[in-house]
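### Sample
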Amino acid sequence: MASNATAKCPPPMKATSNGVFQEDDPLHFALPLVIVQICLVVFLTRVLAYLLRPLRQPRVIAEIIGGVLLGPSALGRNHKYLDAIFPPRSLTVLDTLANLGLLFFLFLVGLELDPKGLRRTGKKALSIALGGIGLPFALGVGTSFLLRATISKGVSQGPFLVFMGVALSITAFPVLARILAELKLLTTDVGRMAMSAAAVNDVAAWILLALAIALSGTGGSAIVSLWVFLCGFGFIALCIFVCPPIFKWIARRCPRGEPVDEIYICATLVAILAAGFVTDTIGIHALFGAFVLGVLVPKEGAFAEALVEKVEDLVSGLFLPLYFVSSGLKTNVATIQGAQSWGLLVLVIFTACSGKIVGTILVSLCCKVPFKEALTLGFLMNTKGLVELIVLNIGKDRGVLNDQTFAIMVLMALFTTFITTPVHTHIPTLINLMEASRGRGKRGGLRVYAMHLMELSERSSAILMVHKARNNGLPFWSKGQNSDANQIVVAFEAFQHLSQVSIRPTTAISPISSMHEDICTSADRKRVAMIILPYHKHQRLDGHLETTRADLRYVNRRVLEHSPCSVGILIDRGLGGKSHISASNVDYTVTALFFGGHDDREALSYGALMAEHTGINLNAIRFVVDAKLVGESVQLEINDQHGPEVTPDEEFLAEFKQKVSQDGSIKYEEIVVSNAAETVDAINKYNRCNLFVIGRMPEGQLVAALNKKTECPELGPIGNLLISPEFKTTASVLVVQQYRSQLTGDSLASLKDDCTTEEEYDSQ
């Protein structure tokens, strides 16, 4: 009977299981299965990102490769694995979650595009953008004829031509922003031009993609495609008139330095989903609605930053990797078989690279851009990435790209991307240290360049990079009040208005591995006298110090080694409490310990500068070795007929003592000690001060006795003594190193200690 031959569809998956004890397999239920899928995807992509880190590849490369490996090209060849972890019944849930995450990601991409910047785009950048689109688009159309005649027979010609043209001409704006920031090219002439051209390219590509989607509809009528396209433009026009006033009203109600009201964030997220629903109903794609909404959100202010902060981690950490797996499950490299298919792969890669690079170079040269910069622009504009995958997936879902063509295009996107290649400080203590360091307080007498260091990590969005990185990727020092403010910068600017210190705040965005270069280069350009760095540990409630950022220690060591000026490391134990102390209320006791050497002389000089402040008293303590312990050779030298030789320390102290006699806020004392134990006991008597100022690598016989294996060699022997649990004090410590063109001896060796090397940091 006919009814007996009817095949039964598998039942839909239930959400949750009753547990293994009731003989339910969790992998047969939607929720536990999607949890396993997410964990597997995140684990694999993070491992691949770690392995690709030496090649300095963006994480998108690891995610694309991870998606391909999990699909039928590699692990998916084992059908038991594929049926257990990625059964066909689960793919609807997986694709839904992936596209939901992609919806919010496209909102962030739109948030990174500044319409004002597009209007300010010069003719040169606009010409380069058009050249970078035109030639590869034409080559993509030409290649599509060859593909339709070989491996893509039967596909609809119009949509296929447009999809191939867009796929070969698109530039991944977010990936390009990250690469430029890592290479410190973000606001060089080349970087600015590349970003402007990429933004124009991005908008043009989305318009062309909307056209391709409209043409690829299943209605089969040109009138239907026209209606889809016109309704899409109508939606954009409506959003342009309605959304900006609302977003601006919200932005005005979100002042900097205060948390953004949750209702505004929630309303925006709902609006993103609603916009996606409208464009999906029109027949374009839900992603377009989210993208348009992101473009219209004001880029400046706390509201945009709060949106990025709330959305980015969840989207980029969990949902986006799912989209790559969804793409990977559709990518079967095994379909590329035979000389013809592999030849077409090489042709597509060559066409994609040469079209983009050559087109950009030719137009750049016509615009009188030097050849070297034109070549750099060509490679930068060739950046592909997630946006490319979105185009390809839409084409695959619409039936425009078959399995073999899809696999070839995914490998092309992977190849072209492959070849292109915040550390908060303890603000109150730093501000109180500035107040203490201003000397006699003449207006403008002390100028502070306050640098807020932010790590350029995988989660750093392009909006942060574009709006806060300046001047060849190096910090841009604000001369006025309209700086790129965040809570850190606002604190420094507020202090400037309340004090007699001139402050120039900035935000520097760098990878940890090159953060010291930003610090040292900025210090050299501004000819600063001293760099103050935060220690990599903070004080717990019980008084012990625990590591806050282990990688900050690496930065400090590199700054100490390469600095163009003197350096201080501040161990914060709450100098002045948790708030700024006004000048009239400052009442500090500073203790400077002097043993001898370059660093001790610098530390004592800094202490004398602080003592010029009316609210600060300085105890200058010099440690002298008991004369009974000094060898006969020294006595003979003193009694030599030529007279005693005056050391740099003695000459410095002679001038310092003369200053002490004229300044009642400085107390100078010499303490005679015989051994290390007596030295420690003597230092303990001054543990009730507010701040210790010491040299990093003091010199002399006493120090040699103290210089044993220490926890943090970069702080030197006295610094390690003052931070040890055995030394009971609430005083902060400033460890000072005097500038020398080349560190030698113990000063250099202490920075090469094995306990924290660059390789160890990279493995963290």
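The radius of gyration is 32 Å. This sample (Cation/H(+) antiporter 18) is used throughout the tutorial notebook.
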